[in-house]
Amino acid sequence: MEWSETGKTKQRINGSCSLRNWYTVASRKRDFILPDSIAGNAAIEAPFIFRKGKYYYLFVSWDYCCRAEKSTYKVVVGRSEKVYGPYVDKDGVPMNLGGGSLVIEGDQNWFGVGHSATYTFDGTDYLIFHGYDAADKGRSKLKIEKLNWFNEWPVVMRQPY
Question: How buried is residue 101: exposed, middle or buried, by Cβ count under 10 Å (0-12/13-18/19+)?
Fold first, then answer.
C-alpha cells in the first residue's frame, strides 16, 4: 500500500517493476481549512487485507493513535470479492468514499485500539492490534481478540478483563 492525497491506495506492479495501475481502496473526507501536514478528521492508516470465503476484507484504522488516554483509534472494515476492490461497508458505502463498518473501538478499559492484523490459528480467526490500557496510565499493549463472523462480517468477541 502507498499513501496518496485521496487515501490508501494499492499499486499493482508488472514483472519489470514499473507502475501498472493505482487503486484507491479507502479514503475519508477532511476539512479543507487544515494544512496538508495534518490529517485532521481524515486520519486513516494501517491497511490489512484478509481473505475469508469469497471475500477479501480490508481492515483500516481511523483517527489517532499514540496519545495514551487521548487516543481515538478504532478499526473499521469493508469487503470485496476482488482484492483491488471496491471495498464496501455493511451499508454498501464504498470505503474509497468514506465507508467503513466499525469492528472495534476504545472503551473505559482501553483507550483507542487499532493498527490491526487478522490471522487464523488452528482454524480460529483473531484480530491482533494494540490498545492503550486505562488501568496502566494509557500504556500501549498488544491485544488479541477472537473474531466470529455474522452474515459474513467480522465481529470481535471481546474478552472480559
Answer: middle
Torsion 92-76-60-154 (CA) sign:
negative
Distance between CA atoms of residues 62 and 30, nearest Å: 12
**pLDDT digit string, tens, across residues 9-44:** 555 545 555 556 777 778 767 666 766 676 666 777
Number of domains in the chain: 1
Task: For residue 82, give the nearest of 49, 125, 115, 116 by alpha carbon.
Answer: 49
Q: What is the pTM of this model?
A: 0.81
| CATH number of the domain that residue 141 is part of | 2.115.10.20
The CA-atom distances, in angstroms, between 71 and each of 59, 61, 67, 83, 133 are 18, 12, 5, 30, 11
